[in-house]
Amino acid sequence: MSIFVDENTKVIYQGLTGSQGSYYGRLNAEYGTQVVAGTHPKKAGSDVDGVPIYANVGDAVAATGATASCIFIPAPGVRGAVMEAAEGGVEFIVAITEGVPAHDEAYFYNELKRSFPKVRLLGPNCPGIISPGKCNIGITAGHIAKEGGPVGIVSRSGTLTYQALYELKQKDIGVTTCVGIGGDPVPGTSFIDCLEAFEADPETKAVMMIGEIGGSAEEEAADFIKNHMTKPVASYIAGVTAPPGKKMGHAGAIVSGGKGTAAAKMEALQDAGAKVGNNPTEAGELMAEIVAGL
Amino acid sequence: MDLFEHQGKEFFAQYGMPVSPGEAAFSVDEAVAAAERLGTPVMVKAQVHTGGRGKAGGVKFAGDIDAVREHAGNILGLDINGHIVQRLWIEKASDIAEEYYASFTLDRSAKKHLGMLSKEGGVEIETVAEENPDAIAKVWIDPVDGLDEDVTRAWVAAANLPDAAVEGTVDILQKLYTAYTEGDADLVEINPLILTPEGKVHVLDAKVTLDGNSEFRHEDYAQYDETQPRDEREEAAHAKGLQYVGLEGSVGVIANGAGLAMSTVDVVNQVGGSPANFLDIGGGANADVMAGALEVINNDPAVKSIFINIFGGITRGEEVANGIIEAMNRVAIDSPIVIRLDGTNADEGRAILAPNLDDKLMMEETMLDAARKAVELAS
User: Which of B166, B208, B236, B281 reaches 20 to 30 Å from B155, CA-CA?
Assistant: First the structure.
């Protein structure tokens, strides 16, 4: 099994007519993902590589029975695009776009919780989700993921998501589902949401979790691992050697007053029983040991 | 994006909050002229993006013009937590009866806005939070609902402010929330918020951090962006739109994605080297961006080797490879480059690089091997 998506997932691409949307929509389709529609308010009736374009998500859902939407809309339009997807009737929304204002994220996170409680949002500012061999929504290069389990991956950082997949593939370890939740202040799907789903998924036997400095999401995840997880976890936290007080990139990763440091996060995870590597390669090696012992 | 205190006050004033009149000054003469226009007594306040100014001698009361001259001379050039004071804010002095604390920020765990109000202001609020957490009244606000007046009143009541301060504080908090949301701020903080002997509630300090991602709907934020203090390297990187943080070492680092860039810095440290910088070329970086990044690194005299660590997702391998070749044609790169390239179109990228490999441009299979090579070349 996989979490959140599978081979039956039909996906609409909001922004399929744009340069990034058309490029990754094509790559996702070539991977085997059911790319069934795109949307554009003024280009309804046209197509991109044979994929029909509808005026909005509601029309696309009615015509295709799609259950998921992937957003490749520029940042200013993401708030509207997320709400359009939920109102249009999809159950799963993947927002790839980076640079969305934090207040917009806080707004649509709470509006979805209230008005569309069954809708799951992944992102924004995330690489998407891949269930190897079944479905790839987003910007992950499909060939770096080996199918067939037993490991589930959840990561806050896009590129480190790929690195984690790659480390496991090098060791011939397959993945059930790899979820990039993104490093923004208010991600639609959290570490805990993914850990909970992996714990419930019979095919996932172990979980790899990639975090980074800043915020307290990793500490909260460590609490969940300690109290609710029976499956082993290997982890890596990026920013071990980041200088305090410096903001490293868009991730909002700012270390101040000893809170949110890599050391504090690593300690919390170790205390919860997870194995923690000092770099992605070490985390991959720890996961290989776990898999060998399954 | 952090604002200086005086910019924060101008920002608050746009939303109708009461702030003291004042003027920015960049020299002793400007400070004196400002004080003459405002009329003494005034406060002479260092403008730096860090706390603890008062303790460091960066905030002084000046009863007359001679005192303004003396304090301005002492404060300009002062090092406060590594920030050199280059600008002052000369402000009409206020009489203070009591000092409070008020702020709004986004609580990532609760995924709601968090308002904090305390009648123990004017001191380090972190200490209050640690030693006497009950002294801070908190309110969590759903961004869909916003903050209405009834909730604000209940919140102010919970903070146990004296009756004389209640109406003024309710009014300021409502305006502060509007400034926070409409202004797309990550943080707005007033410490202290004061009650004057005449019973007026007044903004005495302002800390504002704006969300750079919201610049597309705030044309006026460009003015704050221009005044961000940056070193030469950071200025050059910023001009090219790159995410750059200067560090102290000798291995220049270029990576795509904040996570991988941080991890690259980690790995360089772990194999015994020291990174000269953190540089994230971002998602979807093309040849031009890569060439620009290499130029920035190349201009840093401390750099002895360059480690380019790319794992393509939205960034494509052939674009990265073309950028490296283009940069090497455009400028003479002084240091040897070690590349590790994986992910989307990595094979195409490697094929482009292959005929160009020599003792100035090397390729390694893994991130760890590439880090070791770069560190070896730097020493």
Answer: B208
